[in-house]
Specification:
Elements: H1 8-16, H2 20-32, H3 44-59, H4 62-65, H5 78-88, H6 93-113, H7 116-128, E1 133-136, E2 152-156, E3 161-165, E4 173-176, E5 185-194, E6 197-207, E7 219-223, E8 236-240, E9 243-246, E10 256-257, E11 263-264, H8 270-279, H9 282-309, E12 311-314, E13 321-323, H10 328-357, H11 366-397, H12 409-416, H13 426-439, H14 450-459, H15 462-465, H16 474-481, H17 494-520, H18 526-532, H19 534-559, H20 563-583, H21 585-590, H22 596-613, H23 617-622
Helix pairs in contact: 2-5, 3-6, 5-9, 5-10, 6-7, 6-9, 9-10, 9-11, 10-11, 10-19, 10-20, 10-22, 11-12, 11-13, 11-19, 13-19, 14-17, 14-18, 16-17, 17-18, 17-19, 19-20, 20-22
Length: 644
């Protein structure tokens, strides 16, 4: 058993990881600043004004500077910036989205897709919020299909200007954060037309309001109105009617237009260029996954603390009602979700570290960059779905108290609901993961559309699809972990877990590739083949993410040097893996990897681990380091709240 003397501090320090000092700085700022406290029931305009005030406050702190280059007063610390944003998410997700749009998207697109002239002119103003901006990618008629957007940017050599135009309502920019009220400039994604030829999607800096807040000539702005959540963010719609911007408005790192209209790019293939441009913005998906996990942590902290104080029904022979968390079913509701949150935390930590060390794309080789993009897409999908499910479970676990806005769970549920579809619809992102797995991150990856991917796979030997550039291939991993002889592996044996989840990924991916080859073998239509195996591809992507998350959790436990913390994490890891096997036991049984008896043993062990972790439940949520000021009075420790 884990020692009962274990305190939250050591576990928190381990969870905070490499950027723990930055997380502590943000926590201290929250504790000391009344403006960074939750409020409830504000009218929309008051709420938006408050969030803008909060965002301007954040812009004067280190949290904002971390993302930007040193020459503009920043610290160029991607890992620190993402860690700070994850902590800010605990305050209000509207604030998180507001600063995310300003720094991660508007500032980020200037930094990543612009050249030195753009950075010198705009980055400092973006960092200080002297130039509030927005990120105008999504169109009403195309959503996730960014490559098919229809806003145009036509170059006119005589005046050395681009003409930005919205051809019809389906091409309007929609759901654009900061557009309805505060934004003065938009980073507009449009089809570049020059010399009578389309050059694909590029990004242009387009003023949308003057300094007095009036719409610029030719720009039409409409408020999206009340949403299902995040109403502190002023989402709007944008139309452009022959709006002229200078040639320098093009963010031209990957595609430049000379004064005479001639076009040059360091990447000749249009599709490859498009995916390279989107790849530089991978930090947006990483931040959404991290913010979603922060919301899940907050919900679990509220539900677990409430479950430790709320009593209901008397046991026979007792004069006191039973604490909710002493019921096995209540433990089963919350503790596997808590264990999964820990697993995803360590996977997120590994992704942030890899992104930081790669320089956000500046120094990483292309194969490594593709791996980061694929992992970011997969983790964003799995983490935000987990967030949605976990918050709903926590709301139900708190009964009527969970339905009161003041207790934060309903606002968390509303605010994170859209996380599953923005910064990439989750189902589409998992298709991107599957595409990356099938093409093995080869050079062709960046130049293939869906049809190209299917044809590529159909032309390969199926076994070659699974080659890896990593140190250990799936096949080698399975060979290392496979149970030997007649031994009946222990359900808690990590080598056995590695074997099961690596075997599942390999099996599903090979089967999907075989189906695609078969459908294409007789000159089949590539789109029809892809459509027919979508279910299989999504399963392959999910199997890959599950295996990677397990790998990162395992690695985190191994590197923990504190014996007591390691002992507790061992047990949390066991609960995570067995609850995942419980969820997927039908698949493993169908494919001969689990017997009926072992499947029942998994259920028994999940129950056992829930009972054993119940005494440590408060410690496990306290280790998230959520300031008491951000918890509802229902579960707050009054003596721990700082006095401002």
């Amino acid at each position: 058993m884990v020692q009962m003397t274990l305190e939250a501090g050591g576990l928190r320090e381990f969870l905070d990881g490499r950027w723990g000092r930055i997380r502590e700085e943000v926590r201290a700022q929250i504790q000391e600043t009344p403006l960074l406290r939750p409020v409830h029931g504000l009218p929309t305009e008051e709420y938006r004004a408050r969030v803008l005030e909060q965002a301007r406050l954040v812009s004067q702190t280190r949290s904002a500077w971390l993302f930007f280059p040193r020459e503009f007063g920043g610290e160029e610390d991607m890992g620190g910036a993402l860690s700070a944003f994850e902590t800010i998410a605990l305050v209000d997700l509207s604030l998180l989205v507001k600063v995310g749009v300003q720094y991660g998207l508007f500032g980020g697109v200037i930094r990543r897709l612009g050249t030195e002239q753009h950075r010198k002119r705009y980055l400092r103003a973006a960092m200080t919020m002297d130039l509030p901006g927005c990120f105008a990618m999504t169109e009403t008629g195309h959503g996730s299909d960014v490559q098919s957007i229809r806003t145009t940017a036509t170059y006119e050599p005589a005046r050395q200007e681009f003409i930005i135009d919205t051809p019809d309502d389906d091409a309007r920019k929609d759901y654009i954060g900061n557009a309805a009220r505060d934004g003065r400039m938009a980073a507009v994604f449009a089809q570049l037309l020059t010399g009578g030829q389309g050059r694909g999607v590029h990004v242009f800096l387009v003023p949308i309001r003057d300094e007095r807040g009036r719409a610029c000539p030719g720009v039409r702005i409409e408020d999206c109105g009340e949403k299902g959540g995040l109403n502190g963010v002023d989402n709007g719609r944008l139309w452009f009617d022959q709006v002229r911007v200078p040639r320098e408005a093009l963010l031209d790192r990957f595609g430049a237009v000379a004064p005479d209209g001639s076009y040059t790019s360091p990447i000749a293939n249009e599709t490859r260029r498009f995916f390279t441009m989107l790849g530089t913005l991978v930090s947006g998906r990483v931040s959404v996954a991290g913010a979603g996990l922060s919301a899940a942590k907050l919900a679990l902290a509220i539900a677990v603390r409430y479950g430790l104080t709320r009593r209901q029904f008397r046991a026979p022979g007792s004069d006191r009602e039973v604490i909710l968390l002493d019921y096995l079913q209540h433990q089963r509701r919350l503790l596997p979700a808590l264990a999964t949150t820990y697993a995803l935390h360590f996977a997120q930590e590994a992704l942030v570290t890899a992104l930081h060390d790669a320089g956000d794309g500046d120094s990483a080789d292309e194969a490594e960059q593709r791996r980061l993009e694929t992992l970011a897409a997969g983790l964003k999908a799995v983490s935000t779905w987990h967030t949605t499910q976990t918050i709903q479970t926590c709301r139900e676990a708190c009964g009527g108290a969970g339905y009161l806005s003041v207790n934060r769970l309903t606002e968390l549920k509303a605010d994170t609901d859209v996380f599953t579809t923005f910064e990439g619809d989750n189902t589409v992102l998992l298709q991107l993961v599957a595409r990356g797995l099938l093409t093995n991150f080869r050079d062709e990856f960046g130049s293939m559309d869906t049809v190209g991917t299917v044809r590529y796979v159909a032309d390969q030997v199926v076994g070659a699809v699974l080659e890896r550039t990593a140190a250990r291939s799936l096949a080698q991993w399975i060979a290392d972990a496979i149970p030997r002889g007649d031994e009946d592996p222990n359900l808690l044996d990590r080598r056995y877990h590695e074997y099961l989840f690596a075997w599942r990924e390999k099996h599903v991916l090979e089967a999907a590739a075989r189906r695609m080859k078969k459908l294409m073998s007789a000159d089949g239509d590539a789109f029809t083949a892809f459509n027919a195996v979508q279910d299989h591809l999504l399963l392959a992507a999910r199997a890959h993410v599950d295996r990677v998350v397990l790998e990162h959790f395992d690695a985190a436990v191994d590197r923990c040097e504190d014996r007591d913390v390691k002992g507790l994490l061992d047990k949390v890891y066991d609960l995570y893996v067995l609850s995942l096997l419980e969820r997927e036991r039908a698949w493993f049984m169908e494919h001969g990897q689990l017997s009926g008896a072992r499947a029942k043993a998994i259920i028994t062990n999940v129950n056992r681990l829930c009972r054993e972790l119940r005494p440590q439940a408060r410690l496990l949520v306290d280790a998230f380091g959520i300031p008491e000021e951000l918890l509802p009075a229902l579960v707050r420790d009054p003596d721990a709240v700082a006095v401002s």
